[in-house]
Design goal:
Blueprint lengths: L2 H11 L4 E5 L16 H13 L5 E4 L1 H5 L4 H14 L6 E6 L3 H14 L4 E4 L9 H4 L5 E7 L6 H4 L2 E2 L2 E2 H13 L5 E5 L4 H11 L4 E3 L9 H8 L7 E5 L1 H4 L7 H17 L3
Parallel strand pairs: 1-2, 1-10, 3-4, 4-5, 5-8, 8-9, 9-10
Antiparallel strand pairs: 6-7
Length: 270
């Protein structure tokens, strides 16, 4: 299946719009994992196995692995998800942004090396910075549009041709770049009015929505602003609030409880 088909199936099968972000910080790991060479893999694998039936996607953030020379553990983790939980798509959160042969290599990294089902991409350099990822027809390409950080407004709210830059990105993605149906957009939960505006522009396009949980985004406002008529269309990401819900050896069970509660809260408003 393509990424969009996988995602649609996971929305339905798991009755979930929840995406669990995998941002492993060894300083926050339970004591029994500290010092292990494979601690990052083991920590994330346990979270994945405890929550896979509750989510529509997983989103490993590549920097948390690369900073600790743990790319091999990231490869192993994505392989584990595909083998043990094949219905759940994996989004590599890499936010790549370059052109030409460099972008082609980033696409190979995401899709051939890591075997991700989708990747986040910075579209600031225009269409030719996006096209190399679209050459993998079964993969998803999720473009930064309206990010959850406060500084995002420095550029994303600039006016261009009578609309804000993030609106222009959404319109380009929906009307000119998405001829293959592979594109989604990142829109932060901290800005529900902008989520609603992006949804108005792009129709049914999937939206990856970071910013609930530790970042303080409002779940009710997020869902009501971004859901499609079918009550789907969203991958609402929570990372730290689920990963570090528990500090002891039962951390995976604590993560499951947090994921259950988050999914239930999201589903109240679908």
């Amino acid at each position: 299946m393509t990424f969009t088909q996988q995602l649609a199936a996971a929305w339905q099968q798991n009755d979930s719009l929840l995406c669990v972000g995998l941002d492993p910080d060894p300083a926050k790991f339970p004591a029994h994992l500290k010092g292990r060479d494979d601690a990052i893999f083991e920590f994330c694998k346990s979270i994945v196995d405890a929550t896979a039936d509750l989510v529509c996607s997983f989103k490993p953030q590549i920097a948390y692995f690369a900073a600790r020379r743990a790319e091999d553990q990231l490869e192993a983790l994505i392989a584990h998800i595909h083998e043990q939980h094949p219905g759940v798509p994996v989004i590599l959160d890499a936010k790549r942004g370059d052109i030409g042969s460099t972008a082609e290599q980033y696409a190979v990294e995401a899709f051939a090396r890591f075997q991700a089902d989708a990747v986040t991409v910075n579209p600031y350099m225009g269409r030719d910075s996006v096209e190399p990822y679209l050459a993998f027809p079964d993969k998803g390409v999720i473009l930064l549009c309206r990010t959850s950080n406060p500084g995002g407004s420095d550029l994303q709210f600039l006016e261009t041709n009578g609309e804000k830059l993030y609106e222009h990105v959404a319109r380009l993605a929906a009307e000119k770049w998405n001829s293959t149906g592979q594109i989604g957009l990142v829109v932060g939960a901290t800005f529900p009015a902008e989520i609603a505006r992006v949804r108005q522009i792009v129709g049914e396009m999937p939206l990856l929505v970071p910013g609930i949980g530790a970042q303080g985004g409002d779940v009710e406002a997020t869902v009501k602003a971004g859901r499609t008529a079918a009550g789907s269309g969203l991958m609402i990401n929570s990372s730290r609030a689920i990963l570090y819900a528990g500090q002891g050896e039962d951390y995976a069970e604590a993560a499951r409880r947090a994921a259950l509660a988050t999914r239930a809260e999201i589903n109240q408003y679908r």
